[in-house]
Structure formats: C-alpha cells, structure tokens
Amino acid sequence: MPSQRRGAPGLAHFNTVPAMTAEAILLGCCGSHRWARRVAAHRPYPDLESLLAACDEAAYDLAPADVHEALARESSAGLHRDAPSAAHTALAAAHAAYESRFGHAFVICLDRYRPDEHLDQLLAGIRSRLSREPDEERAVSAEELRALARSRIAHVVANHPETDVTGLPDSPSEAV
Asked: Taking the complete model, does pTM exceed 0.70, yes or no?
C-alpha cells in the first residue's frame, strides 16, 4: 500500500527514538501522560495500523483523570485568519459557552468532513453537545480525543519522519 510505504520512514523513526522522545511526540497527539507512556512502551510497531490499534486500546483504557488531563492540554479549534469576522465571532461565542458549561476546550475530529464543511460541523457539534449532561459529554469528548490522537499520530508518522518534540504540526483534523 502506498500510504504505508510513505509512512515507513516516520514509523521507523518513531520506533527508534528514545522513550522520552516518543512520549513527547505522543503527548503532542494526546495530552495524557499515561496514554503516551503506554503507547511508547509497546514499540516497535510493525506498521501504522498496529500503532493506531495500540493508540485506540490505550485511549479506551483512560481513567477519568487521564481524560481530564488530556482535555486540559487541548485548545479549541479556530478558524483560518481569512474567514469572515462574523464566523470568528460566532465560533468564539460557541466556544465560550461550551467551555463555561464543561470546563474544558471543545474537541472534535473533522477528518470525515471536507474542509468547506468544517465550520458548519464545528458549530453544529458545539450546539448539539451543549445540551448534553456533563458525564455524557465527557464520554463524547473522550471518543473525540481518541479520534484526534489517531489522526495526529498518523499525520506525524506519515508526513514528518524526522519529527522531534519541538516540531509537532497542528493536525488538519481540527483546523477550520
């Protein structure tokens, strides 16, 4: 598969860096130290699918405190600076309402949507999730964190074989 071959140098790099470096790379993908330690400890991974499966398994095992830690390290997705000012205003108000209600940034993985749908999906997501009870929203946020972590690690491994802790890119799945 071409995507696996393209990602191989990044996966090889990730598999061979010191554990602390691997953990730092992983913390850029999901802010839970427990998650990062667990995924790093199971290296080397034979392929991207194995790495992503390990990321999922570690994410499903996060305790509420681990999810809280990861959410605390997140920031709410923003808009491209060229977006209309009304869109910036609407999104800022939606983020403020969400963060006031739940005490953490709104997280959503937008990978399954086209870029021109991101703003609508982001606003619709915030609007629909504001009506949830806090426990239900924590579960949804944990699932979105898992999806974001998958997207981010796949992006890093596939596109940045030389990634170090100072050069983690922003994930395209959350940029609007």
From this structure: yes
